[in-house]
Amino acid sequence: MTQNNTQPIPSNHPKNQPKQSENFPIAGLGASAGGLEALEQFFHHIPADTGMAFVLISHLDPTHASILTEILQRTTSMQVLEAQDQMQVIPNCVYVIPPNRDMTIFKGALQLTLPAVPHGQRMPIDTFLRSLAEDQAEKTIGIVLSGTGTDGTLGLRAILGAGGITLAQEPSTAKFDGMPVSAIQAGYVTHILPVEKMPEVLLSGILSQIPQAAPSPPIALSGINHILMQLRTAIGHDFSLYKKSTITRRIQRRMSQNGIEDTETYARYLKEHPSETTALFKELLINVTNFFRDPEAFVTLKQDILPALLADKPDNYVFRIWVAGCATGEETYSIAMVLREVMDKSRREIKVQLYSTDLSEDTIAVARAGLYPPNISVDVTPERLRRFFVKEERGYRIKKEIREMVVFAVQNIIKDPPFTKLDLLSCRNLMIYLEPELQNRLIPAFHYALKPGGVLFLSPSESIGNHTDLFTPLNRKWKFYRTIPSPASTHAVLASNVTWATESTHKTQENITKVTGESNLAELTRRILLQSYAPAAAVTDTKGHILYIYGETGKYLRPAPGLATLNVVDMAREGLQLELRAAIMTASQNTSVLHRELSVKTNGDFQPILLSVRPLSNPNDQQPLLLISFQDIEPNPSKPAPGKHKRASKPDELRHIEELECELAYTKENLQATIEEQFASNEELKCANEELQSTNEELQSTNEELETSKEELQSINEELITVNSELQAKIVQLADMQNDMKNLLDNIHIGTIFLDQNMTIRRFTREATNIYRLAASDIGRSLSDIKPELKGEDLLDAAHSVLDNLVPIEREVKTLNDNSYLARVQPYRTLENMIDGVVLTFTNVTERAADIAKQKAELLAECIIKTVHEPLLVLNNDLIVVTASRSFYQDFQVSAEETVGRPIYELGNGQWNIPDLRNLLETVLPHNQAFENYLVEHNFPAIGYRKILLNARSIISQTGDPQLIVLAMTNITDKP
Bias category Polar residues: which stretches (predicted)? Predict the structure, then answer.
């Protein structure tokens, strides 16, 4: 089952916030193989406060959870979210398509659906970009980055047609240049840049072309008119009646690309740079379409409209269609394919004249070629792709049978005359770009071009306006209208200012009648001359197959015995066959054979005739044709007819003539046998050729299947490359985390051993070797095989206990060298909160134990000092009081604040400034000496005595240096 890594919607998202302004641009980024690096570069250089929203479409493996969101989040401070259904798009956020989903946008909200086409044939970038263009119009930005294939090309075309901006990665900087090259070669890219320069161009120039909340001042109408006049002078096409909003926006885009802000300056620039005039002309043309646009409309056309139009038409009827504004031909070929399907379904073959016109010569050239990118599989069903297209290396080409139905031509629908006597006229998504004045002029022209009962086919965004007297609706939703017989359209066309209509008014009805009469007389004369003077004739191809017969040819041709055939050589009567075959071969080399005299056996006798074979030039540029004519001549009595001889006067001559005739007959028989063998060989070759054609069709079908498999493998390869890029980024991240973890474990000075459920060593730190004798080769061994450096402790039992009941254990242990460690045994938990072993940690607490012992000793000494009954002082080397006994404070009536931290000779306001005592303490005690019973006679009025017996001892450190002096005193005033 495919994982769906949904994320909680952030608190600042529109689902949790009031709706924000929708007037901000949305950029759709398409990437495939090699696109991860390009995306990281793009978001690394783009600021976080552009006011734009970014939607990322990539080719992802449907069975693999994507980490693209996490990777991109590390490169930008904008919030990166995996898209969810109905998620509203807001500025300064990045949205990433989830795996195994198709995504579109509607009213600023993302729409997620399960893919409808098989894996390997999806075009998710085209799907989203086309919906983005339809939803956001000129606020759309389309960007195609590294990737193979052609996905994204049709999406950029839709964005360009909607007035948006299109960018493609510079192919030389892309790891895989297939997608950028396809879009660039198709001509749908306005900016070709390295990825790192795209943000700069977006922010500096492109955003100024997109309508913002506060629109910029409009360009002066006079400036636009000057530009259009300059364009009309140079190109010959007038765009003055096109919608000013569309025209202005596209002119602004060209001005921005050339760094020009003033319209008058741009008008002069057009005059000085003819190439810019051509570029502006192409910019103003809206050459955006696709196969079966509005599929339900074509279903209606196939099921309702065309069957009704063809129902009462005779077999020799010529069905006329005109597609106006065909762009690159997708609309035209869509109608042709539907018409072909209708004829096949009804088993009727009607001659079709399908005219397709557009203003641009470039788009007409593309339409004539009939070659389209592989992306059209999104719009064309697999059945139609198989039936009407031929798969080539660069895409799909329309089959010849469909292309031969269509005649493409460059035409200006505004000033050039229309095709007339039409059964169906399709003009979709053209009038939406025209001003209402021009629309009201075109609708009567369309009625004028259609036959009574003909059908007008418009787009859902167009209508016939107020011309309800000319058309009646057949389908209001998909805009099919049937003409109503009315002279109003003729009057409207003649009264309009259209050039072709104006010129037509100069012809009077009298002139028309005169011309018609002259044409009838000429036709009558031609027929009489043919009947009176033209010989019987037959038109054949270069193989002799009869295509047309004129006059009576029964005297020269007759049905051949055996299988029915229309080959003129097989049907030739006796005496004509050999000469006719030779004449056809000669005429096939573009050499006429004229007035060859020979005899033909008719009604049991030979009749002399003249045979002529002339090559014909075929007006339809098809295979060459031959005209074979037969002309009777009067026999000459003095001259034997060809094939006959005068009677010989002598027996020898007669015998010789008979021999020659026999030899000639034998030669003819051999020649006939040779001819029959050749025909048999030809038949065999034909059979072999048919078999080869059948094999070729099978191979072609196999090749198509292999092409499909190749496309699927290519798509899978792209997805694997994307997944590999993500995994490489994840590996780098894990390597960094592993380095951080190693340095952490090495520097916390805590011995750690990781064990699995079988007490096998997984990993250990350097400090753990002080407790267990471990080496790097011990990883994978059981801990029970390693002898610990502990005194009588068995931590394996504790580890088993923790593994069983999940209760951590903590105890203090000692090593053989009397170091103390705090040992902890805890469960090993995975990220999924699963128990997968135990962790032993050892913290060295030896210094801590010594500190505790020292603290205990100090506490004990302090307690002893406090319990001594005689006054007692403890001094440091500087003779400063460290502590004093309670009896000292009582006897000398001082407080601890007045004693501790002061020199001894300052105690009691100088009472202890006893002669020789200070000198004695400073000179004798540092030499590790002691004195006892040192009598001090001094007045101590505070306590009423003056004789004190002092005893002093020094406390020696481990290094042998005296640290403290203990001075005990005894009152001996009353003693002798």
Answer: 1-23
Report the distance separating Cα 750 and Cα 840, nearest Å: 10
* Number of other residues whose CB lies within 10 A of the CB of residue 791: 11
Give the integer Cα–Cα distance in Å for 380 and 948: 120
- How would you classify the pairing of strands 191-193 and 165-169? parallel
Single out the catalytic residue among 151, 177, 379, 423. Answer: 151
Q: Do 35 and 174 have their domain in common? A: yes
Contact (CB, 8 A) for 486 and 402? no
Check pLDDT > 90 for residue 341.
Answer: yes
Number of residues in the chain: 976
Structure tokens at 546: 């009869």
> What gap in Å lies between CA 223 and CA 383, rounded to an integer?
52
Domain count, the chain: 6
Tell me how far apart the alpha carbons of residues 801 and 824 are, in angstroms, rounded to a whole number: 13
CA distance 185 to 171: 11
CA angle 416, 418, 422 (to 5 degrees): 170
Q: Cα separation of 731 and 723, whole Å?
A: 12
The answer to whether the CB of 247 falls within 8 A of the CB of 228 is yes
Q: Is 315 part of a structural domain of the chain?
A: yes
What pLDDT, in 10s, does the model give residues 239-250? 766 766 777 777
Strand pairing report for 536-541 and 471-475: unpaired
Q: Which of 808, 823, 844 is the last residue of a domain?
A: 844
pLDDT tens-place string over residues 77-89: 899 998 888 899 9
Q: How far is Cα 603 from Cα 814, in angstroms, rounded to an integer?
A: 137
AA letter at 666: Y
> Does a structural domain hold residue 472?
yes
Helix then strand then coil, % of the chain, to nearest 5: 40, 25, 35
Shared domain check, 394 and 305: yes
Annotated catalytic residue 151: yes
- 797 with 892, same domain: the answer is no
- Alpha-carbon distance 803 to 760, whole Å? 13
Alpha carbons 685 and 915: distance in angstroms, whole number? 146
Would residue 680 count as lying in a domain?
Answer: no
> Is the pLDDT reported for residue 636 higher than 70?
no
DSSP letters, 153-204, are HHHHHHHHHTT-EEEEE-GGGSSS-HHHHHHHHHT--SEEE-GGGHHHHIII
Task: Answer yes or no: is pLDDT of 935 > 80.
Answer: no
What tokens appear for 493 in the block? 């066309």
Q: Element (H or E) spanning 802, and its range?
A: helix 795-805
3-class DSSP string for 497-528: CCHHHHHHCCCCHHHHHHHHHHHHHHHHHHHH
Q: Give dist(CA 324, CA 446) in Å, integer.
A: 10
pLDDT given at position 320: 92
Taking the model in full, what pTM does it have? Answer: 0.51
DSSP lists the bridge partners of residue 760 as 782
Based on the fold, state whether residues 860 and 939 are members of the same structural domain: yes
pLDDT digits (tens, 9 = 90+) for 906-930: 777 677 777 677 777 776 666 666 7
Q: Is residue 335 part of a domain?
A: yes
Distance between CA 496 and CA 485 in Å, rounded? 20
Is residue 32 part of the annotated active site? The answer reads yes
CA atoms within 13 A on the CB side of 877: 8
Contact predicate 454/423, CB 8 Å: yes
Catalytic residue, candidates 58, 59, 135, 725: 59
Residue whose token pair is 């379904």: 345
Mean pLDDT of the chain: 79
Q: How far apart are CA 561 and CA 545, in angstroms?
A: 16
Query: Quick one: DSSP state of residue 134?
Result: H
From 504, 523, 552, the end of a domain falls on 504
Question: Distance between CA atoms of 597 and 642, rounded to whole angstroms?
Answer: 8
Of 253, 245, 220, 199, nearest in space to 44 by CA:
199
Q: Which domain holds residue 601?
A: 534-642
